[in-house]
Amino acid sequence: MRPFVWGALWMTLAVVLTAAETPSLALVVANKEENSLAIVDPASGKVIARVPTGEGPHEVAVSADGKLAFVANYGTAQSPGSTISIIDLAAQAEKGVVHLGPLRRPHGLAVSGGKVYFTAEANRVVASFDPATTQIESVMGTGQATTHMVVAGKTPGQLFTANIGGDSISVIERNNVTTIPVGKGPEGIDVSPDGRELWTAHSRDGGVSIIDIASKKVVATLSLGTKRSNRLKFTPDGKRVLITDLDGGELLVLDAATRKEIQRVKLGKMPEGILMARDGSRAYVCVAGDDQIAIVDLKSLQVTGHLTTGKGPDGMAWAVRQ
């Protein structure tokens, strides 16, 4: 009897000793092929915890205080998702689930003004909820097919969506929607750090549209010859733009001022989500087909390491606990 008691005690102690707290700066990653959210210590590169989510988690966003992660459960080809998971990052557990009713295929996420905005791709809308109540508070139709990604602008209440099937960008301001035609299949989307421009990468014609936000007009179109552009992100200083080519297996690096290509970095199978280090020294790029995240040094433009967080990593965000 005694050996059993001591064995059980040691097993309990081992669990306690190996459990790690969520660091004040954490990388959170949605693993869409295993229905989990990984919490990663960026200093060590180790996964601190994996928290179950709904089916097909594609994108993730974090509350301003760094305490909660919101995960869009997109679903599968056969079964459209209709929930958003709320993860308590300190407790490393699901805190609640937002049930979206008739809204289907939640994907893009943005936190702005204390509200969580999300796209419901199947319904052609952008909706919002209050994380304190989990109640849907607004639903705004874009009238455009496949409303996929959403980013918040620098002006309060300003949102931008990429509508893949509509070949357009929607600008949402105070319940008004402006539709801006762009190239074929806009998907990757980001606002420049100075708030003046919005860039969107086209998934179906290898191009990029650059929109002047003040005039809401396309001021330039770039031809990059990508096979299927997936995500686009500015570096924190606004000097460079990174684009993943899902089918080409590459990361494109552009000079934002000259709008010229600097380099292409080979990454592997199906590069998708991009997240910049807060100091601008590195980019983290999910290589979903290889089940890993490539770390790209933004000075040398070389891959300097990899993280393994789960199967099919895609959406990423920083959680900065205050």
End-to-end Cα distance, whole Å, is 48 Å
How would a crystallographer describe the biggest sheet? 4 strands, antiparallel
Shape: globular
Which range best describes the helical content: under 10%, 10-25%, 25-40%, 40-55%, 55-70% or over 70%?
Answer: under 10%
Q: Count the helices. How many?
A: 1
Q: Which structural category fits the helices and strands?
A: mainly beta
Number of distinct beta strands: 28
Q: Trace the largest sheet across and list its strands.
A: 3-2-1-28
Average of pLDDT: 94
List the secondary-structure elements in sequence, H or E: HEEEEEEEEEEEEEEEEEEEEEEEEEEEE
- Poorly predicted parts: 1-18
Q: Per DSSP, what share of the residues sits in E-state strands of 2 or more residues? A: over 45%
Characteristic key phrases:
single chain, 322 residues, mainly beta, four-stranded antiparallel sheet, globular, disordered N terminus
Structure description:
- The chain is mainly beta.
- It is 5% helix and 57% strand.
- It contains one helix and 28 strands.
- The protein has a four-stranded antiparallel β-sheet with strand order 3-2-1-28, with no helix packed on it. Strands 4-5-6-7 form a four-stranded antiparallel β-sheet, with no helix packed on it. Strands 8-9-10-11 form a four-stranded antiparallel β-sheet, with no helix packed on it.
- The chain is globular, with a radius of gyration of 20 Å.
Question: What is the fold's blueprint, element by element?
Answer:
Layout: H1 2-18, E1 25-31, E2 36-41, E3 46-52, E4 57-62, E5 68-75, E6 80-88, E7 93-99, E8 106-112, E9 115-120, E10 125-130, E11 135-141, E12 147-152, E13 158-163, E14 168-173, E15 176-181, E16 186-191, E17 197-202, E18 207-212, E19 217-223, E20 229-234, E21 240-245, E22 250-255, E23 260-266, E24 271-276, E25 282-287, E26 292-297, E27 302-307, E28 313-320
Antiparallel strand pairs: 1-2, 1-28, 2-3, 4-5, 5-6, 6-7, 8-9, 9-10, 10-11, 12-13, 13-14, 14-15, 16-17, 17-18, 18-19, 20-21, 21-22, 22-23, 24-25, 25-26, 26-27
